[in-house]
Amino acid sequence: MNYTWNWGIFLEPSPEGVGTYADMLLSGLGWTVATALSSWVIAFTLGSVIGVLRTLPSKAANAVGTAYVELFRNVPLLVQMFLWYFVLPEVLPVGLGTAVKQMPDAPFYTAVLCLGFFTASRVAEQVRAGIQSLPRGQRMAGTALGFTTAQTYRHVLLPNAYRIILPPLTSEFLNNLKNTSVALTIGLLELTARARSMQEFSFQVFEAFTAATILYVLINLVVILGATLLERFVAVPGGR
Amino acid sequence: MFANFDFSVIAASLPYLFGQGMVFTVTLTALAASGGIVFGTALAMMRLSGIPGVTHAAKLYVELMRSLPLVLVIFWFYFLVPYIGAWVTGSTTPIQVGAFASALVTFTLFEAAYFAEIMRAGIQSISKGQTAAASALGMSYWQTMRLVVLPQALRNMLPLLLTQTIVLFQDTSLVYVLSLTDFLGAASKVAQRDGRLVEMYLFAAVVYFAVCFTASLLVRRLQARVAIIR
């Protein structure tokens, strides 16, 4: 094997003129984290709404929730990314479409919207499963106490459901984080894209990808640690 | 909104989209799913073997694969496979590997980690009494696995394995980053050649949706039929 290792490459200046290759990867990490967190806000909010819709007694609400989940789950993420980035500006009214295309950091906003709507369908499934796993008596108890449907969800069902689904929500969060790398296809300079361009400029393929791998593993560990702490923090004293 | 919509682009490119693109996507999905299930079963059995080094190696592999984005893994193997090939064949220079072979290796090894987790859960779902009964009948480990545990476990896991295969079918679109001509790659090439992004990407979305939605409905029906009632 004739591959020349050069771990010092990270301290060499990057072809961008400012900073080293290490700085380049770290800036990629920053975009990855920013995209993951921003899209998670959309995914969690919208996903909770859709999940709740699927557990309501109303048939219409159910249909809307089911349609949303099936639509976003059955189209590959990459295709959805292209639809948001290339197709949406074209089908908007001309003025608005042009404004969208000229927006600075367009790949970032597009990726946030796309991942947010995509992950929302997965969060919705978890929220629905969480609510449905509660004993029927909880909803009835809410009704017996004179709560409206909204109050039952707010004070009885959701606080319990969220605690139950915390572990699967953590893995959805991690999936969302990993999925940010798909946004490199629309030009977002996140971690994988940065590792790829480092490889192209420096030819040190394996150093670049090893560094990216280590960074991804580290964020995974941080998220898992955070989730464990959160789980302990929100646990009901004396509960399961 | 759809005033400029040109359906003739889609019609004209149908033979290319399906004849080349979809054939590629389906081939890659089928081969990677079969390889992934075989390799995934091996990983799951290693992880449940209880032999210290083996259990940890399998766990490390699965956890590592599951914490990395697929796109990064695709790039890793794209550059790594020629070196692995050289190592296996004893050659001194990296061997030439086509993008398809590299993608196949990537998806097989990546999906194996996910299949392994499904397999592990399936094997663990078989109650201890069953393996104990098999031992009492004098069966060896392999006989127990083959005749008692795996037939039941596979039946429980089948819907999950098929759902994971639908996910794999969607994920194969990521070979786009290697400029391979899968279904989406074909649609994308036509889109860029003719400047018809809207039509081609919407059409690709509709086709993926139709295939995956139908497949997931079938899996749900299958699930109702094969489920073991306890």
TrEMBL record, chain A:
InterPro entries: AA_ABC_transptr_permease_3TM, ArtM/GltK/GlnP/TcyL/YhdX-like, MetI-like, MetI-like_sf. Keywords: Cell membrane, Membrane, Transmembrane, Transmembrane helix, Transport. Residues 29-227 form the ABC transmembrane type-1 domain. The chain crosses the membrane at residues 29-53, 65-86, 106-124, 205-230. It is found in: Cell inner membrane; Cell membrane. The keyword Transmembrane applies. It is a multi-pass membrane protein. NCBIfam families: HEQRo_perm_3TM. Belongs to the binding-protein-dependent transport system permease family. HisMQ subfamily. This is Glutamate/aspartate import permease protein GltJ. It comes from Methylorubrum suomiense. The gene is gltJ.
Automatic annotation (TrEMBL), chain B:
It comes from the Bacteria. Pfam families: BPD_transp_1 (PF00528). InterPro entries: AA_ABC_transptr_permease_3TM, ArtM/GltK/GlnP/TcyL/YhdX-like, MetI-like, MetI-like_sf. It is found in: Cell inner membrane; Cell membrane. It is a multi-pass membrane protein. Its main location: membrane. This is Glutamate/aspartate import permease protein GltK. It comes from Methylorubrum suomiense. The gene is gltK.
